[in-house]
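Hi Y.,

Following your request, here is the sequence exactly as I used it, all 276 residues.
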Amino acid sequence: MKHDPRITPWRDGIAAVSLEGVIEAEVYLDPKAMSCTAAAASIRSGPDANSEQMDQLLFGERFEVLEEEGAWLFGQAARDGYVGFVEASALGPAGPLPTHRVCAIRTYAFAEPTIKSRASGPYSINSLVTVEALDGKLAKVAGAGWMAAAHLAAIGTSDDDWAAVAERFLGAPYLWGGRESLGLDCSGLVQQALFACGRACPRDTDQQQDLGAAIDAADFGRGDLVFWKGHVAIGLGEGRIIHANAHHMAVAAEPLSEAVARISAAGSEVTAYRRL
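Below is the corresponding structure, written out as tokens. Let me know if you'd prefer a different format.
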């Protein structure tokens, strides 16, 4: 059986104990749950800051650690299943389950219950937080500080229009492997838009192409997805799309016809239209 290395916690003869009897390994290890304590942290292909960023963890997301290698920890992101290396300094012991998520596109945390105190962040939309107390308009978040309560939404509540969520990212820089509001790639934009709406979503474009059901190009509309090899965009309606792309090096909205023509000229045709 072939296993996708992107989402299979295995390397160099070491595997998660859940894979015993599934994948051959020299040793099977129980993963140690940790949480991202940085506003965002890279998941890289190797234990080196110069290795490829494959994905990111956002604040409060769990990371199941299998192995330590110097200043890096190898494991699997609990939220989207991605496997790779994260700097140990960006992780801490797994805390209590989150009570809220960041629902603003980004927000700051303050050291004291006043907006004049030292700020940290910014923390991106869909970061997971545990609220410990309230003081006026501010909420005390474990491990971060005081955030604007209006920028947090209780776990279990969600948006209902992922195209509208995606539009809030307009102008954000394109970043390979990114999924934070300060920089993200095409599949990262789709994932974050769906997460904000309470929808599960895998990390990469080829995985996302299995979502929903196929539709005809003529039926493509708001909230639908259009795919090319290695690229995805979200329909905004009236023949327009939004996508994080390397042409604009940003999240941009444009007519679908212009994107199709430009990407076709570069040698890639549309592979699918999908409705979620």
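DSSP finds four helices and 26 strands in the chain.

Thanks again,
Q.
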